[in-house]
Amino acid sequence: AAAYTYWLFEAHHVVQGVYFEGYHLGGMTKDQAQSFIAAKAKERLEAMTIKLTYKDASFTLSPAELAATCQVEEAAAEAIRLGHEGGFLNRALSRFAIARNGRNVKLFASADEKLIDQKLQQIAGVINLAPQDAYITFDESRICHVGSKMGRTLPIEGTKAFIVSKLKDLKSVALELEPLPVTPKVAEKDLAHITDILASYTTNFYGGRRADNIILATRSINGIYMKSGDVFSFNKTVGKRTRAAGYKDAPVIIDGKIGDDVGGGVCQVSSTLYNAVLLSGLK
After folding, report:
1. Which residue among 6, 13, 125, 216 is the one 20 to 30 A from 230 at the CA level?
2. Cα–Cα distance between 42 and 70 in angstroms, integer?
């Protein structure tokens, strides 16, 4: 009776009938079980592949790149725990059931999700395509319409969740990436009603730093699409005229005197646009 009681309550060896991936762990100490599981975990990780494809493009990652690790200590602790919990009767019944039916210890893995994010961001840089809005060009006095194009974007969070779930179960990943469509903000139909030029206004300028500022400002407003009721702000659209934004020192008029200041020439852009707006009849 004393020997049987000791057998039931000693908690230093894995009971008979506990397996890990088909290998019997019964009789092992926790350290022995942990060493055995660690060796098998290493094999599993080295055999795993993570392959992501999109059309003709292929991207291969390794568990090591994602800092994947196996929860070996947790698996060994689970192996030791089985058949060692509860009172006299519970332990006896549990051990007989395990010995008769067997119990498998599961091994789980995890990876650094920040690294997964970084890798997917790099892949997204190859796959993602910005949508192209429909726009209008001018051929002398004739308006020409250019159609829009759909874009695409890699769903990083969903892709990451799929990879994490596969890694958790130590399964290789083979995934055909499915980017989400990105709709342009301006479609062809939005511009279909624009068939006439309402007004135009012209001013002249010469080359140099002032011309560089004029070109930079006009690029900011060129192609702006406004629906009925929209309000246009020159300052919000062009932004602050600073050296960091690329603007240069050029002649300006301050208190009736000519001097140099950053963004010189931008006032000509705003006044030219303002005159065109006045002639167009817009409010």
Report:
1. 216
2. 8
Sheet holding 50-54, edge to edge: 57-61, 50-54, 173-176
Among 50-59, 83-92, 102-111, which is the least confidently predicted range? 83-92
Residue whose tokens read 């990876």: 111
Q: Are 116 and 62 in contact (CB under 8 A)?
A: no
Cα–Cα distances (Å) from 248 to 74, 104, 210, 221, 236, in that order, read 63, 72, 8, 19, 19
Side chain identity, residue 38: A
Q: Tell me what the mean pLDDT of segment 243-253 comes to.
A: 92
Q: Strand runs (DSSP E) across the chain, as ranges?
A: 18-20, 23-24, 50-54, 57-61, 69-70, 103-104, 109-110, 135-139, 142-146, 151-153, 173-176, 180-182, 249-254, 257-262
State CA 256 to chain mean position distance. Answer: 53
Q: What is the DSSP letter of 149?
A: B
CB atoms within 10 A of CB 83: 27
Tell me the whole-structure pTM to 2 decimals.
0.71
For residue 237, give the 3-state DSSP assignment: helix
Q: Who's near 139: CB < 8 A, 6+ residues apart?
A: none
Q: Which two tokens stand for residue 119?
A: 């890798």
Residue 74 token pair:
């947790």
**Chain segment 11-24, per-residue pLDDT in tens:** 578 888 889 888 99
Whole-number Å distance between alpha carbons of 77 and 35: 12
